[in-house]
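On clarity, I found the account of how folds are encoded harder to follow than it need be. Since the whole study asks how a given chain folds, the encoding of that fold should be made plain. For the editor and my fellow referees, an illustration may be useful. An entry of this sort, consisting of the sequence and the corresponding backbone structure tokens, reads as follows:

:::
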Amino acid sequence: MTVVRAEHERGVTTLALDSPATRNALSAVLVGELADALTRCGKDTDVRAVVLTHTGNTFCAGADLRDPPPPEAFVGLLRRIVELRKPVVARVDGHVRAGGLGLLGACDIAVAGAAASFAFTEVRIGVAPAVISLPLLPRADPRALARYYLTGERFDAAEAVRTGLLTAAGDDADAVLAPVLDGLRRSAPEALAETKALLTAKVLQTFDRDAADLTALSARLFSSAQAREGMTAFLERRDPAWVV
């Protein structure tokens, strides 16, 4: 059963994360299918742009704690979004947690509706937002990231726009998305590719410089005693031992 559903209309391919039973958590299967779908979009001359969205009430709940992808596979997925020579637009109409915010950061444009909510929950299960920092640190407000990375607080779409995690938000995600897609459909494909390359150059420099170290950090933290306690507590729906 596929967990990434693709549809195409007027030059735009929509890739929907379609595993609502797991809240579209980043499993090894989902990461692999999404990476493959993006590769196909990159090779298809009929694809002008890609929309990344979701089914259910959650865009992405972060790492699948029962079937997590290897850190290097997730880093590869993030880089594939950034390097794709076609704009990738995130459309969010639900909750985004942890690694899901890495997907948003990798996208060129991100829009959301009123139902969207966001949180960097890594510290609450004993890990750190390591590899997702590759696209996020060059693009988002550093003081805001410091607060939300360190506290795991939940915040809304308006705050996500203010901090640079979102491009725009409104009551209706599709209404916010419509003018973006109209603009992309009116733009020359090669001009879009070269303009995206200008915009992503510094992000890719961060990948080149820091990906290996952050991948190693992520692997080390996920295998730590604190992470085991944090993930067990999460699955058992209780506070971890360090909560005071």
In short: Strands lie at 4-9, 12-17, 49-54, 58-60, 88-92, 95-97, 109-112, 117-119, 154-156, 168-169. The chain has nine helices and ten strands.
